[in-house]
Specification:
Distance between the termini of chain A: 38 Å
Mean pLDDT of chain A: 90
Oligomer: heterodimer
Strand order of the largest sheet of chain B: 1-2-8-5-3
Number of strands of chain A: 30
CATH topology of the largest domain in chain A: FAD/NAD(P)-binding domain
CATH architecture of chain B: Orthogonal Bundle
Low-confidence stretches of chain A: 431-435, 448-463
Structural class of chain B: alpha+beta
Strand order of the largest sheet of chain A: 3-2-1-7-21-20
Radius of gyration of chain A: 23 Å
Largest sheet of chain B: 5 strands, mixed
Order of helices and strands of chain B: HHEEHEHHEHHHHHHHHHEEEEHHEE
Mean pLDDT of chain B: 92
Structural class of chain A: alpha/beta
CATH architecture of the largest domain in chain A: 3-Layer(bba) Sandwich
Chain lengths: 463, 407
């Protein structure tokens, strides 16, 4: 074939980090055709990590965190409009405003949304919030500025823990309720979970683990407090529901694609699977909504809610959208994420939940400076650093080369590593609110039970 | 030529002007054991991996043969963090970083921009009518020295003393200890002691009469790790003063030399100064100020490229060779000021990555942008220029340029 880039119409559904970086990469790759980005939020693409950090601390305003642009993308932006479905036969995206957007190739980057409080009436109480969008963050900041007597954070994953950290830094009383045995346990396992619990309590967080919130109470439509599964109750002025994310796949229900609660399955080249497990060649996926097979983790489908993954996967997807055959690339990057909370810089490489053992290879829990290395059946699969981020690359190399676990002793820091202990990660088969890395099995779509003989189903009634 | 003599040949002053063919030999030979028992690594990915490897020590006390380490201080004195491992390295570097950069002092470097620009302009004003200029003596050296002294709080009047000490210290830092005389080694140790004593006295004065400089901030800091002891402060402030002296001068001089050798790049950067940040990154790859790191030692046997580097052996990482590794960089011997994906080793990498890198970047960007318009009618008086002795901190001793006739 010639070196000419592929030509046609491209639609990107999802105008956040992955959508923007994909659009920029398409133009970098020489794509000159019509390009449309559809985004449900009215704002141009912005950066989400600061929403639970600098924005809550008043160091940045929620409106000021627009993503830097790498280049001009010369695209049509349909912002503030949600996509309602796909007609895979006519190759059109149906928008909520009635427009039908024809495409030759489609990128799905619809990401996730905050999991809402399950009781809708309680969720509507004034003072019950979630945190996912800049609008959410602006609302939460307003509440924190008002000086609530107590903030209740439901869920001690990364978002919940960062919110609690910001509250303490602002001098606010905060109660964190976590149904698991410790904060961050869903993502980092038992040893670092226990460490996170110690840190939170040392910073004055009223942390309650192994407890769930049974109801949110209110008076005159205002949130006033909560009741817990251990029979206790407490008063609070603000509740932040931090129960993890829900993947935005419902709009794909009739599309025939392998979309479900775990995400939309794709191959290593970011091409979406149909619900029959057949790979498409015109629908691509990137970012938080994607599930993709990873060779380092036994080709299980991985779902990652990571900033870095959204960028890397969008770049691969975009490149593969406008190239063919052997010029296509696989998305193979090792997962990396970070969090800052309670004065700690936490970074992770690999998949800590893909482990059976963990060892503190450098530093110590007591110093709050350490490298925890995770192993699975004798090889290194992940590492988490606390205030030791510069060591991360070494462990990434060990993960990529399937180096033996536990890692070689004789580290230059002179501290002999402790013996490995069980990593105590939750069963990955369970959908948990905790992890931002989820192992989701090998099947493109585990709901598949029936092979309908009729035509490919469509969300859009054809005239 | 046999690969086990590469270290000798790289150290040989005759190859100072163009060590790059030797570095190409390093690329071909992977990890090479030298006839003196040391190991040279010059390929990008291996250097990057070793710079991040916790089994590799920067503390020379891990050497099996202590004679392979240049003697730089007397017993009992504190060590600077560059020669220590975690957690001690981490503690000292963390405390020293507090008054220098983010998160505690995010504006220190940025606040120096106006000063740096003014110093550049003053230096260049003095050169306006000259037909022959030594870029090293008249621009590339005075600028970083003035800036690092101002940053730390050394009064301008004392700069010549600092200069003399720094010269003696650098002269004693040869990669092969046998090559320099006992006299030179002792002069280096004495100069380092004198500089440390000077900085200790200066910091004592800042204790009672604080100023807005870094020494004042260091002696008055009350972070979670406590302040540095007087001895620690002397060792680490000496490190900053030497490093601030002897590296950026090379970067600015190498930059000037490179632009005069590449007229197209010169014209482009002169006309589009906003491209300078990326061009400086390319300079850090193409002609880095620090060519090799001679102080590493494995604390256990480490296998690299099928070669086992034994515990305690001298391990020398040739950063400048890694920067020219064809397996990492396309057309590595081409100077491309707009190069993308340029994660060079010019500042090292890992826990010892250059402490002063943000300052070096800002200084060099401002300096070259100020200098380039003045070079319009100048050419190199000698090519190659005369180089300094050191194969580690490699750069021209002088860079004479002359006004072209016809202007």
């Amino acid at each position: 074939m010639s070196g000419e880039p592929w030509d046609g119409r491209i639609v990107i559904v999802g105008a956040s980090l992955a959508g923007l970086r994909a659009a920029e990469t398409l133009r970098d790759e020489g794509f000159t055709g019509p390009l449309t980005l559809v985004g449900e939020e009215p704002e141009p693409p912005y950066d989400r990590p600061p929403l639970s950090k600098q924005v809550l601390l008043g160091k940045a305003r929620a409106e000021e965190i627009g993503l830097p642009r790498r280049r001009k993308v010369d695209a049509r932006w349909k912002l503030g409009v949600r996509a309602d479905g796909i007609d895979p036969v006519e190759k059109r995206v149906l928008l909520a405003d009635g427009e039908l957007l024809p495409f030759d190739r489609l990128l799905i980057a619809t990401g996730t949304r905050a999991r809402p409080w399950p009781n809708p009436a309680e969720a509507r109480l004034d003072g019950v919030l979630t945190l996912r969008t800049s609008e959410d963050a602006a609302r939460l900041v307003e509440r924190l500025d008002a000086g609530p007597r107590r903030v209740l954070v439901i869920g001690a994953g990364f978002t919940g823990s960062e919110i609690a950290s910001a509250c303490r830094e602002r001098g606010l009383e905060v109660t964190v309720v976590e149904r698991g045995p410790a904060p961050l346990v869903g993502a980092l396992g038992g040893a670092l979970g226990a460490f996170a619990a110690t840190v939170q309590r040392a910073h004055g967080v009223d942390l309650r683990c192994g407890v769930t919130v049974t109801s949110l109470t209110g008076r005159d439509g205002r949130f006033t407090g909560a009741e817990f599964s251990d029979g206790s109750r407490m008063d609070a002025d603000v509740a932040v529901v931090a129960l993890g994310a829900v993947r935005n796949t419902e709009w794909l229900a009739g599309s025939g694609l392998a979309a479900g609660p775990r995400g939309l399955a794709c191959d290593a080249g970011c091409r979406a699977f149909t619900m029959y497990g057949i790979v498409t060649d015109d629908v691509f996926v990137a970012g938080d909504v994607a599930r993709f097979p990873h060779p380092l983790f036994e080709y299980q489908m991985l779902a990652l809610e990571h900033w870095g993954n959204a960028v890397a996967q969008a770049e691969v997807a975009a490149r593969n959208m406008v190239t063919t055959g052997p010029r296509r690339r696989p998305h193979l990057t090792v997962p990396v994420f970070w969090s800052s909370q309670f004065g700690l810089n936490i970074k992770s490489v690999g998949v800590p939940t893909f482990s059976d053992q963990v060892v503190i290879a450098q530093g110590s829990l007591r110093e709050r400076r350490l490298v925890a290395v995770y192993g699975y059946r004798g090889r290194i699969t992940a590492a988490v650093t606390v205030n030791q981020a510069k060591w991360l690359e070494h462990y990434q190399f060990l993960i990529e080369t399937a180096a033996p676990f536990p890692p070689t002793t004789g580290a230059a820091n002179g501290i002999a590593p402790a013996a490995p202990v069980p990593s105590d990660v939750p069963d990955p088969q369970l959908l948990s609110h905790g992890p931002t890395v989820a192992l989701t099995g090998h099947l493109p779509d585990r709901r598949l039970t029936l092979v309908p003989p009729g035509p490919v189903p469509s969300a859009i009634p054809r005239p | 030529m046999p690969p086990d003599t590469l270290r000798e040949r790289i150290t040989d002053y005759a190859n100072r002007a163009d060590p790059y063919p030797l570095y190409a030999e390093l690329h071909e030979n992977g990890v090479t054991r030298q006839n003196d028992g040391s190991y040279l690594v010059g390929t990008y990915h291996e250097i990057a991996a070793l710079l991040h490897d916790p089994r590799i020590s920067s503390d020379s006390r891990h050497r099996t043969d202590p004679e392979t380490v240049p003697r730089i201080r007397r017993e009992g004195q504190s060590m600077a963090f560059i020669g220590l491992d975690d957690p001690e390295h981490d503690r000292l570097r963390r405390i020293t970083m507090r008054p220098f950069g983010p998160p505690h002092t995010p504006h220190r470097i940025d606040a120096l921009r106006a000063d740096i620009t003014r110093i550049c302009d003053e230096l260049l004003d003095g050169l306006r009518d000259k037909d022959r200029i030594d870029i090293v003596e008249e621009f590339a050296y005075p600028l970083p020295v003035t800036v690092i002294c101002r940053l730390l709080g050394v009064p301008q009047a004392d700069v010549p003393r600092i200069h003399a000490w720094a010269n003696d210290i650098i002269a004693s830092l040869d990669v092969t200890p046998g090559r320099i005389g006992e006299h030179q080694l002792n002069a280096g140790v004495e100069a380092r002691e004198a500089m440390a004593e000077y900085l200790g006295d200066l910091s004592d004065r800042r204790r009672t009469a604080p100023s807005d400089d870094m020494l004042s901030a260091l002696v008055h800091d009350s972070g979670p790790d406590g302040p540095l002891t007087r001895s620690e402060l002397m060792a680490n402030a000496t490190l900053l003063l030497i490093a601030g002296h002897e590296t950026t001068v090379n970067l600015i001089t190498n930059g000037t030399l490179t632009f005069l050798r590449h007229p197209d790049a010169y014209r482009q950067l002169r006309d589009e100064p906003e491209l300078m940040p990326r061009a400086v990154e390319e300079l850090l790859r193409y002609e880095p100020p620090v060519h090799l790191l001679p102080q590493r030692t494995p604390v256990t046997d480490v296998e690299v490229c099928d070669v086992t580097i034994p515990q305690g052996a001298p391990l020398i990482l040739v950063l400048a060779a890694g920067n020219r590794d064809p397996l990492r960089f396309d057309h590595p011997d081409r100077f491309d000021p707009a190069r993308e994906d340029n994660q060079h080793l010019g500042f090292g990498s890992g826990i010892h990555s250059c402490f002063g890198a943000p300052l070096a970047r800002v200084e060099t960007q401002i300096a070259l942008n100020a200098l380039l318009p003045h070079l319009e009618h100048f050419q190199l008086a000698e090519d190659p220029p005369p180089y300094r002795r050191s194969p580690i901190l490699r750069g021209p001793r002088h860079l004479p340029i002359t006004r072209t006739s016809g202007t």
